[in-house]
Amino acid sequence: MATWLEGHIVERTVWTDTHFSLRIACARPDFIAGQFIRVALDIDGERIARPYSCVNSPAADGFEIFFNLVPSGPLSRPLSTLQIGDTLWVSDRCNGLLTLQEIPDTARDLWLIATGTGVGPFLSILHTAETWQRFDQVILAYGVREAPQLAYSAMIDQLCQNHSNLHFIPCVTQQAPDSAYAGRVTQALADGQLEARAATTIGTDSHFMLCGNTAMIRDMTTALKQRGLKKHLRREPGHISSEKYH
Ligand SMILES: Cc1cc2nc3c(=O)[nH]c(=O)nc-3n(C[C@H](O)[C@H](O)[C@H](O)COP(=O)(O)OP(=O)(O)OC[C@H]3O[C@@H](n4cnc5c(N)ncnc54)[C@H](O)[C@@H]3O)c2cc1C
Predict the structure, then answer these.
(1) Cβ atoms of residues 140 and 109 within 8 Å
(2) Which of the four pLDDT bands, split at 50, 70 and 90, describes residue 2?
């Protein structure tokens, strides 16, 4: 049986009419950057819970989640209407294997590939010292439909200023600004733009973390396998780790 902890909204960010972040104050469990927590609301007498990645650093207080509205979904809409001071429930433990601890020591370059809200766990990872101690180059490719959906851009720009080995590649499929790659992250891999923009070559010393929708994870994994990389399993170390949101 899950034990639920009461949390309160202390900050709410509306990025677009469909993309939101909530900062939650609670007596929270420890987590490792990249893990997720379960968040719940009581709706019509039923506790509805879903997993959400922790966006903030494990060293910061509370939790931050970043999510988009799913029109037919039971939880994301009520979550999006919560205001500062409102209460919600969070699980008493965090889970997930999309963490640096799971990556083999042989990896030299870290490729973080996200679609939409899948950038969340990577923001947490980018706020850990381990990222900068372990890897030569760190690449964040962030795919969205429209430029305003590139939430947390200011935070990412600041991280780029602090770490010269961080390469940020926004990929925007509709009306991309000049600074972004115009197309999907999978296209950017196929036409060589990911490597060109990162000034880094993909090889067996690369480790890829993929987070977001099923199609991106499937297509990236297929393309990377064709480049000689393989899925990472605890019992059989490889180069591709992933977390599927839907
Ligand atoms: C390990 C894990 C971590 C997750 N972390 C996040 C996160 O940090 N941020 C986040 O936004 N979502 C995240 N999700 C998805 C999240 O748990 C919910 O499914 C989502 O917010 C929709 O909830 P819902 O109750 O409104 O609809 P659900 O009943 O959960 O889903 C309804 C339908 O929408 C699809 N769907 C689910 N999520 C999305 C989405 N983001 N965009 C479009 N369609 C979707 C489902 O496949 C389903 O068909 C995560 C999922 C998993 C498995």
Answers:
(1) no
(2) confident
CA-based angle 52:53:59, to the nearest 5? 130
Sheet holding 109-115, edge to edge: 181-182, 166-174, 137-146, 109-115, 206-212, 240-244
Residue-wise pLDDT tens digits, 74-87: 999 999 999 999 99
- Of all protein residues, the one whose alpha carbon is nearest to atom 10 of ligand 1 is 67
What are the C-alpha distances in Å from 56 to residues 88, 120, 197, 201?
A: 18, 8, 27, 29
CA of 77 from ligand 1 middle (Å) equals 11
- Counting ligand 1 atoms within 8 A of each CB, the residue from 76, 93, 122, 125 with the most, and so the one to mutate, is 76
CB-ligand 1 contact for 74 (6 Å cutoff)? yes
Q: How far is the CA of 198 from the centre of ligand 1 (A)?
A: 30
In contact, 239 and 103? CB cutoff 8 Å: no
Q: How many angstroms is it from 199 CA to the middle of ligand 1?
A: 33
The answer to whether the pTM exceeds 0.90 is yes
Instruction: Give the tens place of pLDDT for each residue, 79-132.
Output: 999 999 999 999 999 999 999 999 999 999 999 999 999 999 999 999 999 999
Domains and CATH numbers, the chain: 4-91 (2.40.30.10), 100-244 (3.40.50.80)
